[in-house]
């Protein structure tokens, strides 16, 4: 028989339910196929949201910006550890969660901490470590932060008792002997690189005893002999985890992304004499694609990799065919707990993985309303509504296979979504989604004042310019823009009402020789016509927002390669004036606020998956909160400001 890879299998006759080649790594061996169907419980995230509702009660605040929907972000959890089926810790970006048998509960930390790893000697002695040298310890009642002078990142923690704990990071290894936390000699630093998926190299450790520990990170494996650390060639590149049942039974796994959409994953075993490494190469689209990243076991004959591959002491077998967790911890009863960036916090009951709490939503936008209310829409069409105290959600009427991108609207009963394909625009009227009257342009973005007043910006077929369409409740009409130049490049739209709408962008002025410059452009709709109200050579106007006809804000930013500063302009009802400058390499942000002396700008950060929020008090801009997640939507009305990140964290700010 063929093996579907160009080869043949030769087992002879297999009896009963056994099949030839069913055992992974043993192609010519009769074996019972793994029960793959029993591990397909994790559906795509689009099918799950918002059924799980995130982690109930989670509310994290950063400088007054507080999460409000129980979602913590796609990469919010970094590690798990526990002591039983009803006593498990999950830590991550600014949070510590505790599983108590049926649900997760947030436990307060002593200040904001970007935690990376957790381990405990018992339920009343748990360690958590993280970025910038943070070390916290749970005493059974609360978390306390330990004083330690180093600011080096810590990414791994492990021990054998309360008097033997190892804390490691890329640049150092610390040991706790019950009295003192001290740095140990001989440590080989891990190069400050990142995996091709953007995650930085981290270092993990497994304690084997006061005189023995194994650490792995990046391309470096090293072992403690009681006196010093020394390198050992474990054969793993891009190490992501280590686990051991004893000094002669150690596993290290990791992997690197390759060119052409493939991944090289390695699992390596130490048997007391030598390392034996097994490397696999897979395409990212393979059904059985695995990037080795998480180990757990109870002994030499019970080892789990990624929560879907199992080692019985002689061979590895795929037990589940599903997107696997990135971190795993298990109890002796066969229960596994994990965290998957694709889904959230999950639990394996011996037969299948199930979601215990989703940690992210694919939110497209969020919009503020009067009376401390707000609305939102996810990419899968789930409509969100905030009533002043809590978010609710509904996906009734949405089509599962449709993507609801680039939405705009005014309430949960009036939402527009720009589509790709033959139907460029659809509208939700509170009961159903319907196709809008036909518009011939490829639409880009829009803004709505009410169910009977809306605007969209698009590009006509075969034309190198932009157009604006206006909705009057019945039909869409293409607007007549002032003929300043044959080509406009429009970037953003905002209005305070149906007769006060602003468009920003720029247009080129190059001559027949290609020489010239670009001119920043501001257009205004007064209810009758579009007019140009402001132009400035050598500028790109990219964002517009405001609170009234006499308080309109514009973000002016050239390409980052240009040395010109990023500027903020403010319209006071008569003219635009400078309202602050930022360095030229500042990423383009979003603007929202409640008045001339209360404006916010959300700026995504490059090296940290978060957003820096700047505040203008009427005189100057000052950096304020740094929040997890990349904010992609910012909106305010009536003083409260709402924000949504690309992975579904919803924030509100209340002055």
Concise synopsis of the structure shown:
The chain has 655 residues and is mostly beta strands. It has one helix and 59 strands. The termini are far apart.
What features would you describe in this structure?
The chain is built from one helix and 59 strands. The protein has a five-stranded antiparallel beta sheet with strand order 3-4-59-58-57, with no helix packed on it. Strand 26 and strand 27 form a beta hairpin. The chain starts with 18 loop residues before the first strand and ends with a strand.
Helical amount among residues, as a percent range? under 10%
**DSSP summary: helix tally:** 1
Strand residues, percent = over 45%
| CA(first)-CA(last) distance | 71 Å
Class by alpha and beta content = mainly beta
| Arrangement of strands in the largest sheet | 3-4-59-58-57
The largest sheet is: 5 strands, antiparallel
Average pLDDT number: 85
Residue ranges: pLDDT <50 for 5 or more in a row? 1-11, 19-27, 32-38, 46-52
Instruction: Report the strand count.
Output: 59
Q: Which geometry do the CA atoms define?
A: elongated
Question: What gyration radius follows from the Cα positions, in whole Å?
Answer: 28 Å
Topology (SSEs and partners):
Elements: E1 19-20, E2 30-31, H1 45-48, E3 61-62, E4 65-67, E5 77-84, E6 87-92, E7 95-99, E8 104-106, E9 115-122, E10 125-130, E11 135-138, E12 143-145, E13 156-161, E14 164-169, E15 172-176, E16 181-183, E17 203-209, E18 212-217, E19 220-224, E20 229-231, E21 239-246, E22 249-257, E23 262-270, E24 275-283, E25 295-299, E26 302-305, E27 309-311, E28 316-318, E29 327-330, E30 336-340, E31 344-348, E32 353-358, E33 363-369, E34 373-378, E35 383-386, E36 391-394, E37 407-411, E38 414-418, E39 425-428, E40 433-435, E41 442-450, E42 453-459, E43 467-471, E44 476-478, E45 489-497, E46 500-508, E47 518-525, E48 530-537, E49 541-548, E50 551-556, E51 566-571, E52 576-582, E53 590-595, E54 598-604, E55 610-616, E56 621-628, E57 631-637, E58 640-645, E59 650-653
Antiparallel strand pairs: 1-2, 3-4, 4-59, 5-6, 6-7, 7-8, 9-10, 10-11, 11-12, 13-14, 14-15, 15-16, 17-18, 18-19, 19-20, 21-22, 22-23, 23-24, 25-26, 26-27, 27-28, 29-30, 30-31, 31-32, 33-34, 34-35, 35-36, 37-38, 38-39, 39-40, 41-42, 42-43, 43-44, 45-46, 46-47, 47-48, 49-50, 50-51, 51-52, 53-54, ...
């Amino acid at each position: 028989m063929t093996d579907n890879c160009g080869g043949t299998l030769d087992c002879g006759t297999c009896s009963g339910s056994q099949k030839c080649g069913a055992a992974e790594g043993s192609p010519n061996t009769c074996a019972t196929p793994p029960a793959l169907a029993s591990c397909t419980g994790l559906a795509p995230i689009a099918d799950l949201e918002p059924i799980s509702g995130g982690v109930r009660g989670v509310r994290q605040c950063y400088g007054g910006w507080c999460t409000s929907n129980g979602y913590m972000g796609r990469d919010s959890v970094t590690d798990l550890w526990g002591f039983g089926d009803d006593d498990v810790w999950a830590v991550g970006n600014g949070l510590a969660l505790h599983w108590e048998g049926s649900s997760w509960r947030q436990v307060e930390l002593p200040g904001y901490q970007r935690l990376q790893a957790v381990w405990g000697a018992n339920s009343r002695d748990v360690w958590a470590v993280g970025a910038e040298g943070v070390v916290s310890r749970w005493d059974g009642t609360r978390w306390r932060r330990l004083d330690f002078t180093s600011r080096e990142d810590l990414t791994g923690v492990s021990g054998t008792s309360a008097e033997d704990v190892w804390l490691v990071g890329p640049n150092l290894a610390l040991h706790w002997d019950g009295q003192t936390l001290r740095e140990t000699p001989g440590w080989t630093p891990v190069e400050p690189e990142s995996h091709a998926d953007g995650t930085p190299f981290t270092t993990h450790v497994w304690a084997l005893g006061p005189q023995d520990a194994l650490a792995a990170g990046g391309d470096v494996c090293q072992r403690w002999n009681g006196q010093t650390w020394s390198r050992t060639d474990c054969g793993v590149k891009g190490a992501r985890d280590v686990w051991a049942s004893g000094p002669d039974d150690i596993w290290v796994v990791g992997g690197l992304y390759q060119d052409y959409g493939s991944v090289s994953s390695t699992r390596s075993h130490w048997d007391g004499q030598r390392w034996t490494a097994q490397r696999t190469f897979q395409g990212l689209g393979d059904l059985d694609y695995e990037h080795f990243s998480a180990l757990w076991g109870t002994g030499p004959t019970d080892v789990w990799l990624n929560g879907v591959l199992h080692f019985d002491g002689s061979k590895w077998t795929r037990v589940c065919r599903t997107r696997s967790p990135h971190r795993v911890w298990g109890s002796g009863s066969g229960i596994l707990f994990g965290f998957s960036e694709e889904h959230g916090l999950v639990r394996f009951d011996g037969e299948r993985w199930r979601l215990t709490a989703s940690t992210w939503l694919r939110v497209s936008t969020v919009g503020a309303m009067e009376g401390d209310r707000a609305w939102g829409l996810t990419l899968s069409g789930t409509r969100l509504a905030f009533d002043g105290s809590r978010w609710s959600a509904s996906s009734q009427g949405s089509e599962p296979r449709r993507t609801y991108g680039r939405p705009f609207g005014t309430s949960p009963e009036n939402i527009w979504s720009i589509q790709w394909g033959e139907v460029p625009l659809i509208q939700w009227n509170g009961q159903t989604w319907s196709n809008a009257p036909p518009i011939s342009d490829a639409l880009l973005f829009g803004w709505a004042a009410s169910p009977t007043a809306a605007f969209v910006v698009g590009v006509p077929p075969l034309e190198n310019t932009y157009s604006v369409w206006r909705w009057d409740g019945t039909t869409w009409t293409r607007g007549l823009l002032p003929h300043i130049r044959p080509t406009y490049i429009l970037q953003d739209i905002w209005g305070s009402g149906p007769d006060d709408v602003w468009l920003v962008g720029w247009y080129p002025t190059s001559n027949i020789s290609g020489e010239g410059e670009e001119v920043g452009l501001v257009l205004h709709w007064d209810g009758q016509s579009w007019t140009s109200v402001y132009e400035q050579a050598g500028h790109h106007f990219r964002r517009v927002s405001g609170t009234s006809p006499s308080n309109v804000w514009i973000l002016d930013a050239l390409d980052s390669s240009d040395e010109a500063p990023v500027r903020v302009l403010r319209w006071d009802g008569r003219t635009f004036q400078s309202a602050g400058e930022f360095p030229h390499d500042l990423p383009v942000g979003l603007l929202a606020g409640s008045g001339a002396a209360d404006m916010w700008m959300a700026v995504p950060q490059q090296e940290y998956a978060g957003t820096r929020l700047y505040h203008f008090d009427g005189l100057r801009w000052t950096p304020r909160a740094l929040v997890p997640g990349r904010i992609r939507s910012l909106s305010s009305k009536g003083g409260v400001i709402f924000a949504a990140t690309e992975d579904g964290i919803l924030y509100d700010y209340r002055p």
